[in-house]
Write a structure and sequence with these properties.
single chain, 563 residues, Rossmann fold, ten-stranded mixed β-sheet, 25 strands, alpha/beta
């Protein structure tokens, strides 16, 4: 079942039309401790997250393993503004008289979905094959979000829908019905079959267990087979359960005390001679008359027979044990408790003082989620708010020696004062660092022709490579100008004739000439050359195994046969 909403036809492919903008580092707001190189992998970006996500594509597409976002819950009290520049007159007219979005807006759910749709598409592109995305939400949009993510990420890549019990007292102003005590965290994978790290996370198992589960105590015994837990009652006291109503609960259990083997079917006379004895339920005399069924089903006994152990004491009382399962091997539950929403405010106040931000997420909550991923993961939060995600990454690295990196995106003007300042204070006296960035002007052919916006060589290379191949480019070791390829893949070289100099671009130096083509051809590898224009025919280029693409827009995908 596909989700439909007002404006979907206009935003359906909007993420494809968003231009790529370069990230401009503001060194005055970046953190660069003495003796430490500015770390471009830790980023705090101030700007619209739609454009920021597209700006990350050239370097990070397919490389981010963990995404956490906390988008507007669309409660009607947030007054958020949907101002995406969708190229549709009807969409623009629809939005013109209905912003900001508030509780009086009868179409606020449609606008929320229009806002989220292109962002979720870009977030999916950024995820690595073993990547996972967590989205906090409440009941206002949880149903819409689930359907959108089913459509964008695929139903088969749904992982879980955690319930975070964050306020046991309940929100007395939560509207009609019961007071709200929880929120949700939807979890989807880029490719669910790749989530071995997610399934095997010990840290999550220990932390997410509800207190009521973790604090259960059993009467544990030990013998030559190991530790066992006494099961005092295996009979089912529901008198309605019998061989007619619940036939799966009515059967005989046989046990061999010599081999510790359990059987509940196919017991022959030969088995009885080999030491198998019928096990009655553990009942006192008054209970025996009303025994009708076991608590366990036949299939469960068969499946868990290796965990069952029976013993008969000197008074011929039957003791039934099951193996004590390893705590770390126990499947984690889809409920998160013991982390109250008020803790998030205390986490922030400890660094910045009182009343800096409303309803920040608790650090321990995000640490739980981030700990699911590898300890060298790049963690992205494109609705960064006060910066809880970055603090979670920094603290986890200190605790386990990991090398995780964070990328935060936030539009509001408090980014420097709250979000970045929080991390500056947290990293005070440590080797950590981050780059504070804004979004530069998008790369466009008209700006290039006028010379009003000329991106750096590395930014241009990353942008055109992503446009041509759909892949990320590591710019840390990129070539310079026209002296060598800016990238060498397995199958071909990538060259670019470009300098951020208008006079140079207007000269003949920016064109692909025979001399340049021959120099490139001498490398004896297929080559793709990006340049403003060329002075030789395609016939000559084909003979030299050279593909020409005009800056700034490649005329074709050049990696259809592999990169």
């Amino acid at each position: 079942m596909r989700l439909d909403f007002e404006g979907k036809q206009h935003v359906y492919g909007h993420h494809l039309t968003v231009p790529i903008s370069p990230l401009v580092v503001d060194k005055s707001k970046s953190l660069q401790p003495q003796g430490v190189e500015l770390d471009a992998d830790n980023l705090i970006i101030q700007g619209d997250n739609l454009y920021a996500l597209k700006a990350l594509m050239p370097k990070y597409v397919g490389n981010i393993q963990c995404i956490y976002i906390d988008p507007p819950y669309n409660t009607g009290n947030e007054d958020w503004i949907y101002n995406d520049n969708v190229n549709s007159p009807l969409q623009r007219q629809w939005l013109a008289t209905q912003a900001p979005v508030d509780g009086e807006d009868l179409e606020r759910h449609d606008k929320w979905m229009c806002m989220m749709w292109p962002r979720l598409h870009l977030l999916r592109e950024l995820l690595s094959e073993d990547g996972v995305i967590f989205v906090s939400i409440d009941s206002n949009e949880q149903h819409h979000l689930r359907m959108m993510m089913d459509e964008i990420f695929g139903e088969d890549n749904f992982v879980n829908n955690f319930v975070w019990v964050n306020n046991l007292k309940g929100r007395q102003i939560s509207g009609y019905g019961a007071a709200g005590t929880h929120e949700y965290i939807l979890v989807y994978a880029k490719e669910v079959s790749q989530l071995a790290q997610f399934r095997n996370s010990v840290n999550l198992l220990k932390s997410m267990m509800p207190t009521i589960y973790r604090n259960v105590r059993y009467d544990v015994h030990s013998d030559e087979l190991g530790d066992y837990v006494v099961k005092n009652e295996l009979h089912n006291t529901n008198s309605k359960f019998n061989e007619v109503t619940r036939p799966n609960l009515v059967f005989d259990i046989y046990y061999n005390s010599k081999t510790q083997e359990v059987r509940c079917e196919d017991v022959s006379e030969q088995h009885l001679h080999l030491g198998f004895a019928k096990i009655p339920p553990k009942l006192n005399n008054s209970d025996r008359a009303r025994f009708h069924a076991w608590r366990w089903s036949r299939s469960k006994v068969i499946r868990d027979s290796h965990d069952l152990h029976f013993a008969i004491d000197s008074n011929e009382n039957i003791r039934v044990y099951t193996k004590v399962r390893s705590y770390d091997d126990t499947a984690f539950k889809d409920i998160i408790t013991d982390i109250n929403t008020t803790v998030g405010k205390k986490d922030l106040e400890a660094l910045l003082g009182n009343n800096q931000f409303e309803f920040p997420k608790p650090v321990n909550l995000i640490k739980l989620l981030v700990s699911l991923c590898n300890d060298d993961a790049v963690v992205l939060d494109s609705f960064a708010g006060s910066g809880t995600t970055a603090q979670s990454v920094v603290e986890l690295n200190k605790e386990d020696g990991g090398n995780r990196k964070f990328i935060l995106v936030e539009l509001e003007d408090y980014v420097d004062r709250i979000t970045a300042e929080r991390i500056r204070r947290l990293m005070n006296g440590t080797p950590g660092s981050f780059s504070y960035c804004t979004l530069g002007s998008p790369v466009s052919i008209s700006d290039l022709l006028r010379g009003t916006s000329l991106p750096s060589y590395a930014d241009m290379a990353a942008s055109i490579y992503y446009n041509a191949t759909g892949e990320a480019l590591d710019t840390s070791s990129i070539g310079h100008f026209d002296d060598r390829p800016f990238h060498r893949s397995v199958k071909r070289d990538y060259w670019m004739l470009y300098r951020p100099d208008l006079d140079w671009l207007r000269s003949g130096n920016s064109a692909l000439t025979m001399a340049t083509a021959e120099r490139i051809h001498n490398n004896e590898r297929p080559a793709v050359v990006f340049a403003s224009h060329k002075y030789l025919s395609q016939k000559h280029l084909s003979e030299m195994n050279i593909t020409f693409c005009q800056i700034p827009y490649p005329t074709a995908k050049v990696n259809q046969s592999g990169t």
